[in-house]
Design a protein that fits this description.
By secondary structure, the chain is an alpha/beta fold. It is built from 11 helices and 11 strands. The structure holds (3S,4R)-3-hydroxy-2-oxopiperidin-4-yl beta-D-xylopyranoside.
Length: 345
């Protein structure tokens, strides 16, 4: 049975945390365009939205002469209608970019020159910033720039052409252009496993420290926080937020979910009440940590990567065909123990 109504008696999650940070969620196309239970939950419990996919460059930058905001505008209008804070994800990434952008020819054989790619991405950044400036307050300027192998900027080996074509100062350029286009915007560098892999954290830390020393206009570090019920320890999460906060940057949690699997697990496990309780305790201790970090002025936003378990990107990733239950509401839209654990004294 599908619930057609949401549980009215529940406290609104974002109201509950309003003195600490905004609580956001990723909107899928489904949630945005269907007035079903997930949309109702989105509107009740979250005061900030980010598009799960439809503001990614591959859906907007159709070809050299076409920057198409038709779909993105529907998302912006929806958020505006309900007075939600809006994040833009993402201007530059190595994934979900239009393939043509990296090439000279239609057949995608010869890589673009530095001048070509620079002109294309600069045009895109200015177009997006100009088009969205009355709606959006926070932008992921560069997503996932740090390599999992070297902990330095990604190279071709990590499936990124950006450094190869533009050179090692490309990240600085993206932030500088974004700032030029909209000096009031919050500009975020966003990545995963920063809170869980110490080497990657050092890499990001040193990278942003250098950017700050060069006066690059970066405002915040985004921690995606696709974590698991087992790892990383909450102390390490707190230490990570504090490290960046002490550097003078804001910290945003941008894509949180709490998988019941470790990343390397292959087998499906049974979703027992004990497991749901374990997940609830994990959410609880982490949200307590978020409150402490918010009180220090470091953490400003906590954004979850979805609402209901059945719609999570973690179904099928990293193991195709396997489900996961990383979010706060189950597949029927009913609040899980994790929801209650973070909204009870
Ligand atoms: C994911 C979406 O959730 C999926 O629907 C899509 O197929 C692939 O991208 N890090 C990011 C997000 O920055 O954009 C990704 O979103 C999840 C990992």
């Amino acid at each position: 049975m599908f619930f057609s109504k949401i549980q009215k008696s529940l406290v609104s999650l974002c109201d509950y945390y309003k003195d600490y940070f905004s609580v956001g969620t990723a909107l899928s196309r489904w949630t945005l365009f269907n007035k079903g239970i997930e949309q109702k939950l989105a509107l009740k419990h979250f005061n900030e939205f980010v598009a799960e996919n439809l503001t990614k460059p591959m859906f907007i930058y159709k070809d050299e002469n076409t920057i198409d905001f038709t779909e993105a505008d529907k998302y912006l209008k929806f958020c505006k209608k309900y007075n939600k804070k809006i994040r833009w994800h993402t201007l530059v990434w190595h994934a979900q970019m239009p393939k043509w952008i990296y090439y000279q020819d239609k057949e995608c054989k010869e890589l673009a020159t530095k001048e070509m790619l620079e002109a294309r991405i600069k045009k895109y950044i200015f177009a997006v910033m100009e088009h969205t400036k009355d709606y959006v307050s926070s932008y992921d300027v560069v997503n996932e720039p740090i390599s999992d192998k070297t902990y330095k900027l990604r190279t071709e080996e990590d499936h990124s052409f950006w450094q190869k074509i533009l050179g090692p100062d490309y990240v600085e350029k993206m932030f500088t252009w974004a700032h030029e286009a909209n000096p009031n915007a919050e500009l975020v560098i966003n990545d995963y496993n920063i809170e869980s892999t110490i080497g990657k954290r050092e890499g990001m830390y040193n990278f942003v420290k250098e950017m700050l020393a060069k006066n690059v206009p970066i405002s915040a570090v985004g921690l995606q926080m696709h974590i698991s019920v087992n790892d990383p320890p909450v102390e390490q999460i707190e230490e990570t937020i504090n490290m960046f906060g002490e550097l003078g940057l804001k910290v945003l949690v941008t894509e949180m979910d709490v998988s019941v699997y470790n990343f390397e697990d292959k087998e499906r496990i049974e979703y027992t009440p004990e497991l749901l309780e374990k997940q609830a305790q994990r959410y609880k201790e982490i949200f307590e940590c978020f409150k402490r970090c918010a009180k220090k002025g470091y953490l400003t936003d906590v954004v979850l990567w979805g609402i209901m378990d059945n719609c999570s990107w973690k179904n099928d990733f990293p193991v195709p065909g396997r489900t996961d239950i990383p979010l706060l509401f189950d597949g029927k839209g009913k609040a899980k123990p994790s929801f209650y654990s973070i909204t009870e004294e």
